[in-house]
Structures are given as C-alpha cells and as structure tokens.
Amino acid sequence: MTVLFCFFFVINLIAFTSIGYDKYLAKNHKKRISERTLLSFIFLGGTIGSGLAMIIFRHKTSKKSYLWKFWLLATLQIALLYLCFNFGILSDKTLI
Predict the structure, then answer these.
(1) For residue range 25-59, what is the model confidence (pLDDT) as tens digits?
(2) Could you tell me which of 60, 10, 12 has the C-alpha nearest to residue 32?
(3) How confident is the model at residue 81 (pLDDT cuts 50, 70, 90)?
(4) What is the pLDDT of residue 91?
(5) Distance between CA atoms of 91 and 89, rounded to whole angstroms?
(6) Among candidates 14, 13, 35, 36, which has minimal Cα distance to 26?
(7) Across residues 60-84, what is the average pLDDT?
(8) What is the Cα–Cα distance from 90 to 63, expressed in whole angstroms?
(9) Is the separation of the CB atoms in 43 and 81 below 8 Å?
(10) What does the alpha-carbon distance between residue 82 and residue 74 come to, in Å, rounded to a whole number?
(11) CA distance 17 to 33
C-alpha cells in the first residue's frame, strides 16, 4: 500500500508541476508541453494535482476541449474506483 501511495503522490506532484511549468512556458512564448502529455499524467492518476494546478495557475481553464477530456478521465477514474469497491476488488481491509 505504501508503494501505491508513493506512486500517486509522485504522479500528482509531477502533474501539478507540469501544469505550472506549461503556464510559465505559455507566458514566455516558449515551446509548450503537449496536451497529450498533460492528459497522460491525469490518466495515470494525477487528477488531483492537475485539477489543483489548473485552479491555482488559472491554466487550461478556458479551453473547452481540454476540460472535456479532463472531466471524462476524472469521471472514469471515479467510476472505476466505485466498481472496484463495490465488487470487492478493493475493500477496506486491503487498504489498511
């Protein structure tokens, strides 16, 4: 369980940092981080880090296509967690 926690901590930290860095690159008219890369971090579990970074840095919040993809991935992750807990793949006992 510790490995899983560390993985999610690191992936959220990377996602948060990459959104902030992309905002910095956008302000300075430099080559940007691709949306595919940013969405890959979300897919891997960096939803919370990306979401916080989008709010704090006010980045990618007005681009509708990105927001649709972000919320689609977040909804799929919530549904997957719900199914895992409901069908016993993950239970309270495995998380302790």
Answers:
(1) 999 999 999 999 999 999 999 999 999 999 999 99
(2) 60
(3) confident
(4) 60
(5) 7
(6) 35
(7) 93
(8) 35
(9) no
(10) 12
(11) 11
Tokens 């919320």, located at residue? 71
Residue type, 43: F
Query: 12 pLDDT exceeds 70?
Result: yes
Measured distance CA(34)–CA(1) in Å, rounded: 32
For helices 47-57 and 64-86, angle between their N-to-C axes, nearest 10 degrees:
150
Residue 48: what residue type? I
Backbone torsion region of residue 29, taken as left when φ is above 0, otherwise alpha when ψ lies between -120 and 50, otherwise beta = left
SS (H, E, C) the chain: CHHHHHHHHHHHHHHHHHHHHHHHHHHCCCCCCCHHHHHHHHHCCCHHHHHHHHHHHCCCCCCHHHHHHHHHHHHHHHHHHHHHHHCCCCCHHHHC
